[in-house]
Specification:
It contains four helices and no strands.
Length: about 110
């Protein structure tokens, strides 16, 4: 539950940055890919009770994709240094969560 709250805060900060850059931001915390991934994870969790490996692998894949997207944003020239700092902090936190997930599956 900690990560869900954390990602909600991250989404809010990213919406603020997007609004500053172009005057608009999404009204909700999901883009269409994020929503589809969320629904797919819930569907798999419902049908695959006991298949934790598949769920963990989906979490790993999602976190890796998120990190990749965040790093692309850092390359956008319009993003200010202070916003890049916020995004960098979020990347570090997501990388730590990913490391924790990977550590969990190796133990």
């Amino acid at each position: 539950m900690h990560f869900v709250k954390e990602r909600s805060v991250y989404a809010s900060l990213l919406r603020q940055i997007a609004h500053q850059l172009n005057g608009e931001g999404p009204d909700n915390g999901f883009d269409s890919k994020g929503l589809l991934h969320y629904l797919w994870m819930n569907f798999k969790a419902t049908l695959a009770v006991g298949y934790t490996e598949a769920i963990i692998n989906a979490c790993i894949s999602s976190e890796e994709a998120t990190i990749k997207e965040y790093k692309l944003v850092l390359e956008v020239p319009l993003v200010s240094e202070s916003d890049k700092s916020i995004i960098g902090q979020q990347i570090n936190s997501i990388e730590q969560a990913l490391s924790g997930i990977k550590t969990h599956i190796t133990n």
